C-alpha cells in the first residue's frame, strides 16, 4: 500500500526566489549557465527518483541541494546495517527505519524549501503509470532487472526521459533513455539475462563509493536536462571503470524494431516484468529443481558421528579468509577446469555463502556424473545461525 | 598492432581475470570464437545453446554496436577495440 507524505513548500505558480533562496543558491546564480532563470527552472522541476539506495543517496542529496522544487522518491525498503558501506544518506541510528523516513529527514534538513514526496511502496505495473504521471523526469536508481524494464516501459508510454545509472563491483554505466528521438533501455537490451547468470551486489560486492560517483553523474544529467544546458548523455552510454579510472563512451542507437519505442510497437501497456525476467516461480528456493540438500544441523550431526564427508567450498579466496568450514576451495568459476580434484566415490557436501552458488555447483556435478553430492542449504550463513554462531556473517 | 578485446568486470573471472586481451582476427566473429576457445567457461555467458550471441550482451567495435554494422561479420582492423557490454542492474537480483 502506498503511503504518500508531502513536505509542503511554496506554491510553484508565479515563482520568484526569496532573498534567502538567492543567498542559498548564490553559487548557481553567479554562473551565466544557470542564473535566476535556471534556478527558477530547477524550482519548477518535478523529478521522481526510483530507489533510495546506493545510487539514490548522492542523487537525492544533490538534487535537493540544487533546489529541485519537487522531489518524489519511491522505495519500500528498510535501512540495513550492510547498507551503510555505501548509502550515505543514512546514519547508523537509522538502521531498521524505513529508508524513506530517514531520507526525508536528511534531505529536508539539507533543503527545507523543496517539496519531498515519499512513496513507501514497491513499484509495480499497477501503480507505475499513475506515480510517474505528475513528474517531468524519472531517475532510475534501482537494483534489479524487472524494475529496470518496468521503469523504461512506463517512461516510453508516458513520454518521459529516464536518467539511467547502474553499477557492478567497480564499473558503472550511465545514460539518458527515452530522450526525445533517442533510444530506450530495450533498444540496448531487448531481453534481460536469465536469473542466476548475473550476480547481485550481495554476491558480487560493490565498492561503496562507486554508486556515489554514478549517482552523482545521474544528478548532473538530471540538472542539465532541467536547465537545458550542455550535452546530455542521450544516445551515449557512459562506461566507467573505477579501478582503471577511465571513462569510455559507446554510441546508443534507437532500434526501429524496438517493441516499445520502435516504429511498430507491440508493447502498449505494462506487462508482468517478473515473468519477463524469468523470475516468476523462482521466488521459492531452488529446490524445485530437485537438488539434493543437507541442512547445517544434519551436516554437523554427520561430522560429529565421524562420517567421511568431503566439504567443497565454491566461494572466492577472499571469502575463505573471512570464515570457512575447512572445506576444499574451488571457486565456482574454476569448477569446470578443476573437477578432477574431486573424487566421485566420496560423499561431497558443497557450500557457499548462502546456498545459491553451491546449488549451481551441485547441479553441474550431477550432470558430470557425481551421485554422492549435496548442497548445504543456506550456506555458511545458515551454519552460523544454526550450528556455530562464532562464525562471522558477511 | 592487433585488436584489443575489453572484458567486462562480470566476465573477468571466466577470462583468467584479465580486463583486456589482444587478438589477431579479421572479423568480430573470429575474435569471439578465439576468445571462447581459449576461455571455454565464457562460452555460456556469451552464446546461447544454439550459437547466437545472447541478447543481453552487446558487442561494440570502437564505439559502434555491431548490430548496426555487420553483426559478427563486422570486419576489424589493427588498433580497433572490441567491447563486450552486458546489462548490469546493480544491487539485488530478484
CATH superfamily label of the largest domain in chain A: NAD(P)-binding Rossmann-like Domain
CATH architecture of the largest domain in chain A: 3-Layer(aba) Sandwich
Summarize the main sheet of chain B: 5 strands, mixed
* Overall geometric form of chain B: globular
Segments of chain A where pLDDT lies below 50 for 5+ residues?
282-286
Mean pLDDT of chain B: 87
Strand-pairing-aware structural class of chain B: alpha+beta
Structural domains of chain B: how many? 1
How many separate domains of chain A?
2
Tell me the radius of gyration of chain A: 24 Å
Q: Please state roughly what percent of the residues of chain B sit in beta strands, choosing from under 5%, 5-15%, 15-25%, 25-35%, 35-45% or over 45%.
A: 15-25%
Helical region count of chain A? 16
CATH topology of the largest domain in chain A: Rossmann fold
CATH class of the largest domain in chain A: Alpha Beta
Protein structure class of chain A: alpha/beta
Task: Return the string of H and E elements of chain B.
Answer: EEHHEEE
As laid out across the biggest beta sheet of chain A, the strand order is 1-4-3-2-5-6-7-8-9
CATH fold-level assignment of chain B: Ubiquitin-like (UB roll)
Amino acid at each position: 500500500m502506498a503511503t504518500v507524505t508531502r513536505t509542503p513548500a511554496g506554491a510553484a505558480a508565479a515563482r520568484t526566489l526569496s532573498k534567502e533562496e538567492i543567498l542559498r543558491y548564490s553559487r548557481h546564480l553567479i554562473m551565466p549557465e544557470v542564473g535566476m532563470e535556471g534556478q527558477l527552472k530547477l524550482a519548477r522541476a518535478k523529478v521522481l527518483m526510483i530507489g533510495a539506495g546506493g545510487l539514490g543517496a548522492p542523487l537525492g542529496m544533490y538534487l535537493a541541494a540544487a533546489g529541485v522544487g519537487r522531489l518524489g522518491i519511491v522505495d519500500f525498503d528498510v535501512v540495513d546495517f550492510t547498507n551503510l558501506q555505501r548509502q550515505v544518506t543514512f546514519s547508523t541510528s537509522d538502521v531498521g527505519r524505513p529508508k524513506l523516513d530517514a531520507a526525508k529527514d536528511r534531505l529536508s534538513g539539507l533543503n527545507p524549501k523543496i517539496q519531498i514526496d515519499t512513496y513507501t511502496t514497491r513499484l509495480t505495473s499497477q501503480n507505475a503509470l499513475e506515480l510517474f504521471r505528475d513528474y517531468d523526469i524519472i531517475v532510475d536508481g534501482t537494483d534489479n532487472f524487472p524494475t529496470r524494464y518496468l521503469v523504461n516501459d512506463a517512461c516510453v508510454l508516458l513520454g518521459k526521459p529516464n536518467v539511467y545509472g547502474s553499477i557492478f563491483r567497480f564499473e558503472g554505466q550511465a545514460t539518458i533513455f527515452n530522450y526525445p528521438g533517442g533510444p530506450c533501455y530495450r533498444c540496448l537490451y531487448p531481453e534481460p539475462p536469465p536469473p542466476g547468470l548475473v550476480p547481485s551486489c550481495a554476491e558480487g560486492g560493490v565498492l561503496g563509493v562507486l554508486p556515489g560517483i554514478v549517482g552523482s553523474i545521474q544528478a548532473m544529467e538530471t540538472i542539465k536536462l532541467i536547465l537545458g544546458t550542455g550535452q546530455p548523455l542521450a544516445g551515449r552510454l557512459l562506461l566507467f571503470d573505477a579501478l582503471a579510472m577511465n571513462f569510455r563512451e559507446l554510441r546508443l542507437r534507437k532500434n526501429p524494431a524496438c517493441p516499445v519505442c520502435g516504429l511498430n510497437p507491440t508493447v502498449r501497456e505494462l506487462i508482468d516484468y517478473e515473468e519477463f525476467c524469468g523470475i516468476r516461480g523462482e521466488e521459492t528456493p531452488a529446490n524445485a529443481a530437485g537438488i539434493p540438500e543437507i541442512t547445517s544441523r544434519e551436516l554437523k550431526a554427520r561430522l560429529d558421528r565421524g562420517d567421511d564427508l568431503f566439504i567443497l567450498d565454491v566461494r572466492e579466496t577472499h571469502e575463505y579468509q573471512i570464515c570457512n568450514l575447512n572445506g576444499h576451495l574451488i571457486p565456482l568459476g574454476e569448477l569446470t577446469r578443476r573437477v578432477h580434484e574431486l573424487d566421485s566415490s566420496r560423499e561431497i557436501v558443497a557450500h557457499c555463502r548462502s546456498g545459491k552458488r553451491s546449488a549451481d555447483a551441485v547441479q553441474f556435478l550431477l550432470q558430470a556424473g557425481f551421485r554422492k553430492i549435496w548442497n548445504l542449504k543456506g550456506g555458511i550463513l545458515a551454519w552460523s545461525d544454526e550450528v556455530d554462531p562464532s562464525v562471522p556473517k558477511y | 598492432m592487433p585488436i584489443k578485446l575489453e572484458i567486462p568486470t562480470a566476465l573477468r573471472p571466466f577470462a583468467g581475470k584479465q580486463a583486456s586481451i589482444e587478438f589477431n582476427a579479421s572479423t568480430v566473429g573470429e575474435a569471439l570464437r578465439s576468445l571462447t576457445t581459449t576461455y571455454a567457461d565464457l562460452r555460456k555467458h556469451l552464446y546461447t545453446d544454439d550459437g547466437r550471441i545472447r541478447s543481453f550482451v552487446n558487442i561494440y567495435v570502437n564505439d559502434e554496436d555491431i548490430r548496426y554494422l555487420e553483426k559478427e561479420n563486422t570486419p576489424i582492423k589493427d588498433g580497433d577495440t572490441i567491447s563486450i557490454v552486458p546489462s548490469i542492474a546493480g544491487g539485488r537480483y530478484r
